[in-house]
# Entry
Amino acid sequence: MKGISILEGKYAMSMDMYPLQDKSFNRIHPFYDNLKEGRFTTTKCKDCGTRSFPPRVLCPECLSEEMEWVDLPMEGTVLCVSEQLAGVPLGFTPPLIMAHVDLDGELSYLGRVQNCQAGELKAGDRVKVVAIPIESIPAEGKKGAIIEMERVFYVFEKI
Amino acid sequence: MGRNVCIIGGGMSLWGVRQATARDLYQEAGKACFDDVPGLSNKDVDGLLVGSAFTERSNFQTHLAPLVAEYLGIKPKNICCRVELLCASGSSGIILAYGLIKSGLADVILVTGGEKLYTPQRWEVFYSELGTGDHDFDGAQGLGLPPPFFSMVAQKHMKEYGTTEEQLSMVSVKNRRNGARNPKAQFQKEITLEDALNAPPIVRPLKLFDCCPVTDGAAAVIIASEERAREYTDKPLVYIKGTGQASVNNASANMPSMTTWEALKIASQEAYRKAGVKPSDIDVAQTHDCFTISEIIEYEDLGFCEKGEGGLFVEEGRSDFGGDVPVNTDGGLLSCGHPFGGTGIRQAIEILRQLRGDAFKQVEGARTGLTHNLSGLTAAHTVLIYGRDV
# Structure
């Protein structure tokens, strides 16, 4: 069955749901390194003080490239909840609970809430940011080398 | 100020779950479009723009425009490329065609757009949707499929302004009634308020008829300089009068508000200013009703009513035939479906027909029309204003 690579047991990184996080692929790798150590961080411009999220290599305000890593709050208050019970994207299991969370006035964003059943979370509840490991999938490097990637991501959990 | 630019014809394939490839659909749309302008041949077209978002993902086809040109017998010499802004890809193509023709870089451009989204495995399109926001941060949370996001938009609008589930349902009842007259729509069947209110939940409070479907389809229009337009058609001319396209955030962390769409306000104000019209001058509008709550917020942020009164606007029939401004007169996304790149072009076709006077159901005496797309999780908004008067 030549020409149908996906059927040869290979994994297409271009189809991967999680970003390539290692420093060989990604200039904001400290975000993931910090996450592995239990810190939720982002970049702040050393020149104008603008804090951005997602983290980046260029300040969108003053275009400075001088960035430093700063910690974000790891707890917040739920503003709104959505519960997707069916038709969730591949890689997720229903119910897929998403929440709009205010991290104590510092940042608000939409994030997945893990270990949570439908009806369990409501506006006003407190949640925390937790790091979760991403299953390692071997990728092919040069000359047959196998690259194992230890990756991590962040989700909410009800407190 | 450049030349006057007209939309002179348009057509679309049947939209729905199609037993056809993307290239089949572009051929159907192209044929319908050329049939609408008998005085114009494919040999008269000097530019091609193709709006498509998922072409690489669903069809494994990059470099789409030369393929479409070959299939439609077009030999472009001034522009031949694809345009992508997810749900606003088609409208973006029309804006670019307008600019190119206005400035004299091209004379007659075919703008087409469409998607073939259904594969035998329905999970594929849902998976690909994770790439439509900020993939590395929001997408990897599982965010990207629109219903969870718009469910929160609806919850917040209901809480802030007292909008009701009945008012949401009234949008789908109106649009399904309009779509029942549209022979190219994915759904051509009316529903009752009871049907809508009792439909199975998708993501609460959104129920089945609050959500547009996944759709295969394509549409195409011809944009030309006024001078060339007069050569090809003796139907009333419809001019592109003003455009706006705005984005103020992408990632969910940077949204100014979920219930007031700042980028829509900016895009529409730009379009009104360039067109020299105000919201009350719009006789007919096609807005992006991907969800019923979207249309309600669009009434408000387009300036058709005061902020927070969108629910009342539909309840009082002000967005229906005979009201202030009939909205989604061809059925909108809720009836026609939503092949991303095709939608803005489908909207342009309906405005063309309404202003030309040959719509399925006519808004009597309509002279000024508007189209609107949102794209992504409201990360960009696109507005065009068309008119019988320059």
Notes: Chain A has a mean pLDDT of 92. Chain A has one helix and ten strands. The radius of gyration of chain A is 18 Å.
